[in-house]
């Protein structure tokens, strides 16, 4: 069982002992820390926080603990109850709230939950802010409100519908064109809130919907990470029902994967590539993804005359670089679309609407669209080291060895070769180096990974 504290929030497994797992005591402690931090950093008298959750089994319990802790601090709460991560992010500025908390462990299995923390813009906190909250939690230096100053909870149920309307009203979303295309789309909502939001959005766009696991029970019918090996049922459903495509989201709806009409994966890395291709074709500009994302986004951006840059891994890092470079679309290769025209957060609803508009405009099958992009293949590995080894020293030696290549050290070591790349990142919690490679064939990506693993072992004297 596990409790992981990071600058972006706290996540852990339900049950067990406090400080070792995400127990009620830990939920209250970290909600107290976040609320106290908001009060300390705000000059306003009465604060307001938006709270929403995915459908996982522990969600209601954790939400009640968090909301009641906030009102105990004298903070008012807007209770969205079952919601999505991007919906909470959209709601925070619309409510003129001072922050937001999303209760979700994203793609982690059902025994996990988490508190994801937002600022007044509905964006994730930066590193300094997160560190302050963690420090306050350790000190447990909280002052709660007296009885006449307690906050109150207001239940608001319209925000998924509001979010959908915000998406539909975007200039690059053409609901009329999508409806005229008469698409049939199969949806796997993994029995979480994507099963509410995605079918609602599709029906609003005039799409015929086939639902699979769209009841928000929190009992995930398969591993909730939207990877090929977990999605056999939706792939078979798309083929059997002759659907135009399949849509798959993770439990909190910030990761998006498409299934082509032939039942094959469009490729999670290519969700962002296709959406960016459409956006750039209408509004030329720059793009950003993280260092572990596919080179295909760079290729598409350059095709449209834009500039591409890569950030350190982590949504907050992608968002900051997007702001710094005035990027008009960006995200992460795991299927996360960030479209600032609506908000700075990964948003599967925006991704679905942009993709369907593009598909309707192109008048081609999903598999045909996929063939228009350069094919890259990834290999993701890790090498476990003994705790005594200095991981930073190993990475510095790798960097020195390849100093004549294009090397980035903003997040581990990434080496860009002409035909492939290698990205090495150390874990913050264990003596592991994660090794990501990409090349123009799976065989080459695997071969490059094996070669790098061998070199690391040699440097570390493990062979």
From TrEMBL:
Q: Where's the Alpha-D-phosphohexomutase alpha/beta/alpha domain?
A: 8-142, 173-263, 270-374
Q: Which GO terms describe its molecular function?
A: magnesium ion binding; phosphoglucosamine mutase activity; phosphomannomutase activity
Which Gene3D superfamilies does the record cross-reference, listed alphabetically? Answer: Alpha-D-Glucose-1,6-Bisphosphate, subunit A, domain 3, Alpha-D-phosphohexomutase, C-terminal domain
Report the cofactors: Mg(2+)
Question: Has the keyword Phosphoprotein been applied to this entry?
Answer: yes
Which residues belong to any copy of the Alpha-D-phosphohexomutase C-terminal domain? Answer: 395-453
GO cellular component, alphabetical, reads: cytosol
Family under the similarity heading: Belongs to the phosphohexose mutase family.
Q: Name it.
A: Phosphomannomutase
Query: Which species is listed as the source?
Result: Salinimicrobium sediminis
